[in-house]
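Lab meeting, item 3. Inverse folding demo.
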């Protein structure tokens, strides 16, 4: 799998962010969860510490912890400076300021790195990427995908979204995706078609408002559930 590290922005999110992003209940947290495109999130580390079950999949995991940290250090200031330059355009409700955002991202990657090598050995961090994942049908209860599908709609076409969501529904009973807007902060051009497609196939579709918002309008999550007959 050829992934070039210098094209990657390794920003991860915390367990608290995941809970808010995906409206995760206590019951949800006790399910078998797979996080797709988790990057250097601390969700897996924090959940594992609490005895819960999470597998994280990302092409980033072909790299060592040191390489991931080095790449993070190369990009973090540049990104935060870009955010500072446009700080009035962002929503400072969860993260209180650009510096707070930076602090949170640093904390998350440190937490991730403290767990990464151990987690790799027990296959909690697995190299892989959509639209094809190496897991059995219905191996998980819940597949979470944050900041990949819909966000990168201008780079990833409709068929990629369709195939990726189909694959997530193959391995999990329920899929949740956040956010539903693009990097340009526009409603994803693929969303309505995806909703129509899965509705026609008999899936239950919900678009839920969440308590987390950083991009203006980026406070909605798509939930697709296989109808359990």
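The presenter then showed the designed sequence:
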């Amino acid at each position: 799998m050829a992934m070039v590290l210098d094209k990657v922005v390794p920003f991860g999110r915390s367990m608290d962010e995941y809970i808010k992003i995906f409206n995760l209940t206590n019951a949800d947290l006790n399910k078998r969860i797979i996080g797709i495109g988790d990057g250097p999130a601390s969700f897996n580390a924090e959940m594992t510490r609490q005895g819960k079950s999470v597998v994280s999949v990302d092409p980033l995991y072909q790299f060592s912890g040191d390489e991931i940290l080095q790449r993070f250090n190369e990009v973090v200031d540049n990104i935060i400076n870009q955010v500072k330059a446009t700080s009035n355009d962002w929503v400072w409700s969860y993260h209180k300021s650009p510096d707070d955002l930076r602090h949170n991202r640093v904390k998350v990657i440190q937490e991730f790195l403290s767990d990464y090598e151990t987690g790799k050995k027990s296959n909690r961090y697995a190299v892989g990427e959509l639209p094809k994942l190496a897991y059995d049908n219905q191996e998980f209860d819940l597949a979470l995908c944050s900041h990949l599908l819909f966000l990168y709609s201008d780079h990833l076409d409709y068929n990629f979204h369709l195939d990726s969501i189909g694959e997530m529904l193959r391995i999990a009973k329920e899929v949740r995706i956040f956010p539903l807007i693009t990097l340009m902060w526009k409603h994803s051009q693929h969303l309505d078609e995806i909703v129509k497609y899965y509705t026609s196939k008999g899936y239950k579709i919900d678009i839920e408002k969440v308590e987390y918002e950083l991009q203006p309008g980026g406070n909605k999550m798509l939930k697709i559930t296989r109808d359990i007959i």
